[in-house]
Design a protein that fits this description.
The chain has about 425 residues and is mainly alpha-helical. Helix content is about 80%, strand content about 0%. The protein has one domain: Growth Hormone, Chain: A. It contains 16 helices and no strands. About 55% of the residues are buried.
Length: about 425
């Protein structure tokens, strides 16, 4: 292991970064619907908050990290502020009270995803390490943290209480303090430049490049799929054993899938840990286009298998759906982040990662959360899953036709 001290420090950062998210992301939907009685549209609106926050906060704080406050300090301050909002939200039970507080929490959490990537990329580069080769084995511990938090809230029963938000807040405070000890990131001290450069908005000029514009647009289209299972999968599986649900069947009541749906879903994140390690090989062997196409096909299978499975004899389809999630998420999200890092100038690194987050977890997640909630209310289960699968298939076909792999174009130019 090259530079083991640095590697361990970044592993701890990634573990805490995603443990804070895993404490509530999957289980919050079931808590809001089953315990507080919120409707599908109301539950969907909470997951759309991540999209609202990602429309401007990752790009805004990316600019702050590039121009004013080093990324590791911006990361730490953001986590501490996020924790304050989570604690406040945990004491509320009315939609009108929880909603703005959760908005505040995600406004400061969502930028930390790209900021933590920036901190890691900066540290690895300064240490003379290869980000494509050395980052995925570090990032995999973020997924381990996510899984550990999911199991913790399930086994303690926090997944149907407000204590899941307390756990997340505690982890965020710990990471907030720890972030100030991480390797320092530099800020741009360039003088002059036009108005756009002075405001740190240069990363948005990436849309002038055809390859980046198409990549960002499809990032948004695929980002619409990201929050669908986070929003509905846990409550959907629990519904097979809930007498008030249209999905209820006494055969499934008491099954492992119904009783421990959060742990069942955590197989998705376990799959992530394996798939992250495949990214360096797949990117170098096949290029970003084929890797993204694999992700899109995996989303088709993810949704389709959820629609055809059940917690009884069909539980194997649920399990297979969880397994393919690793390819669906990692080959899009992690590979996309590495692609943006490689294709942009270091002076706008944090801002470019912020733009990627804006398109995926901002535009994509915001539109996707509301559209998915509308589909669920109009179509109901399990047919909604088949509609989502068809959408992912159409996006994949369009991407295959329109996107040109820049790595192949560079190879042909040599």
């Amino acid at each position: 292991m090259k530079n083991p001290s640095l590697t361990i420090r970044l592993i701890v950062m990634n573990f805490l970064q995603y443990a804070a998210w895993g404490s509530w992301l999957i289980s919050l939907g079931a808590y809001l619907s089953v315990v507080l009685g919120f409707s599908p549209l109301q539950v969907g609106s909470f997951y759309a908050l991540q999209g609202i926050a990602s429309l401007f906060m990752p790009a805004l704080l990316g600019i702050v990290a590039d121009k004013f406050l080093p990324a590791q300090k911006t990361l730490g301050l953001s986590h501490i502020l996020c924790a304050c909002f989570l604690v406040a939200a945990s004491f509320q039970t009315e939609y009108s009270a929880i909603y703005p507080l959760m908005l505040g929490a995600v406004c400061f959490y969502m930028p930390t995803i790209s900021l933590s990537n920036t901190v890691a990329f900066n540290a690895l580069t300064k240490a003379g390490m290869d980000t494509v080769k050395d980052f995925p084995p570090i990032r995999v511990f973020g997924t381990v943290g996510f899984i550990a938090a999911m199991w913790a809230v399930d086994l303690t029963g926090f997944n149907i209480t407000n204590k899941q938000l307390w756990l997340s807040a505690g982890i965020s405070i710990a990471l907030g303090i720890y972030s100030f000890t991480l390797p320092a990131c530099s800020i741009s001290k360039e003088k002059g430049g036009d108005f756009i450069e002075k405001l740190g908005l240069k990363a948005f000029s990436l849309f002038k490049e055809r390859k980046m514009a198409i990549f960002f647009i499809f990032s948004a289209l695929l980002g619409m799929a990201l929050q669908i299972t986070n929003t509905f999968a846990d409550g959907y599986i629990k519904g097979f054993g809930d007498e008030t649900s249209p999905l209820y069947n006494p055969v499934y009541k008491g099954t492992f899938g119904v009783e421990h749906s959060t742990i069942l879903i955590s197989l998705s994140q376990i799959s992530e840990t394996l798939c992250i390690l495949l990214i360096p090989f797949f990117l170098k062997k096949f290029g970003i286009k084929k890797v993204m196409l694999i992700s899109m096909l995996a989303w088709v299978l993810r949704f389709g298998l959820l629609g055809t499975g059940n917690p009884g004899a069909g539980v194997w389809m649920f399990i297979l759906s969880m397994i393919v999630y690793g390819l669906a998420f990692d080959f899009f999200n992690i590979s996309g982040s590495l692609f943006v890092q490689q294709e942009t100038d270091p002076s706008i690194s944090a801002s470019a990662q912020g733009v990627f987050m804006l398109m995926t977890n901002g535009v994509g997640a915001f539109v996707g959360s509301y559209l998915a909630a509308w589909v669920v209310e109009k179509v109901n289960w399990p047919n909604s899953w088949f509609i989502f699968a068809a959408y992912a298939l159409v996006v994949g076909i369009a991407f295959m036709i329109l996107f040109k792999d820049p790595t192949k174009e560079k190879a042909l130019a040599k």
